[in-house]
Amino acid sequence: MRQPKPGVEVRNSSIRIIFRYQGEQRRERLCVDGQPMAPTPANIKYANRIAAEIGDKIRLEIFRYVDYFPDSALAKLDKPQQTVPMLFDVMDKWLTVHDIKPSTRRQYRTRINSFWKVYLKNVPIDHVRCSDILSALANGTWKSTKSRNNELSMIRGLFDMAKSDKYLVENPCESITPKPVQKKKPDPFSLDEVKLILAHLERHRPEPVRNFVQLMFFTGLRTSEGLALRWKNIDFRAREMYIESANVYDEETDSTKTSTARTVLLSCPVPFDRRRV
How many angstroms separate the CA atoms of 168 and 149, rounded? Predict the structure, then answer.
């Protein structure tokens, strides 16, 4: 038979959890549908986990008697030390307080409303389990493995905030690992392709458009960086540009995608990679 750990007492026909709460030692019997839980190996394993979980919640001051021992007389007297918020409320708060760019916030809000609020139930956040996250991810129609990993990374951050606020003992995403992503081989345009594209633009588009595309081809700027480029950032004598901002969805930011400013030479052609469009 599986051995009980400290905090678990196995009796002839029941299992009791022993813990210290509000300055007193408590002994509570585990029950199922009002009946004592039989001391089987599986139930003892479960009791070991419950004892550890109760200890963690008491330490974090989020233990609620009624969650574990609803039939106990103490459950009716015990006042929860804080109210655990609902999952969707935490999602909305995370979108509000998370320090991200406005364009990123809009994308996150769309993903939360159209995916996570569809495939997760609006329950107290401490009721969300790892299996719930996995089940939701399994419903996703991902364009790529990277998209699935990005979705996991976003929701993991939300539960990290809830853990920091002491609503959770563990992040339910902690044991879910990102899937490996095979890095794609760069697919740059050849110089002949570049010339054909520029020749087409010269015939069918205004000159500023052709000039902008040529700049993008031979500097390797991200589209957002090219859109935010200003004359003050260009030094024609030194033939270089200082890249320090970006424009995403018509909103200009004071930093690049990687939050790293850099100097780009104008005299050194750089093949343009289709993946950076």
Answer: 23
CA 44 to chain centre: 34
pLDDT by 10-residue block (mean), the chain, 277 residues:
78 93 90 90 92 90 86 75 84 90 87 94 93 93 88 94 90 91 84 92 92 88 88 87 82 77 71 43
Contact 88, 117 (CB under 8 A): yes
Whether domain 191-276 has CATH 1.10.443.10: the reply is yes
Distance, CA of 125 to CA of 155 (rounded, Å): 12
Signed CA dihedral, 69, 72, 74, 80: sign only: positive
Q: In one letter, which amino acid is 233?
A: N
Q: Which two tokens stand for residue 26?
A: 């408590």
Which of 202, 240, 208 shows the shortest CA–CA distance to 227? 208
Q: How far is CA 115 from CA 112, 131, 133, 205, 258, in A?
A: 5, 16, 11, 40, 27
Give the contacts of 165 (CB within 8 A, at least 6 positions apart): none
162's tokens: 């809830």
Question: Parallel, antiparallel, or unpaired for β 262-265 and 31-32?
Answer: unpaired
Backbone angles phi, psi at 259, to 5 degrees: 60, 35
Q: Output the CA torsion sign for 254, 260, 263, 268.
A: negative
Classify residue 189 by burial, with Cβ atoms within 10 Å: 0-12, 13-18, 19+. Answer: middle
Token pair recorded at residue 30: 């585990």
Domain boundaries, the chain: 8-77, 87-164, 191-276
Q: What is the pLDDT of residue 275?
A: 43
How far, in Å, CA of 236 to CA of 64, rounded?
Answer: 68
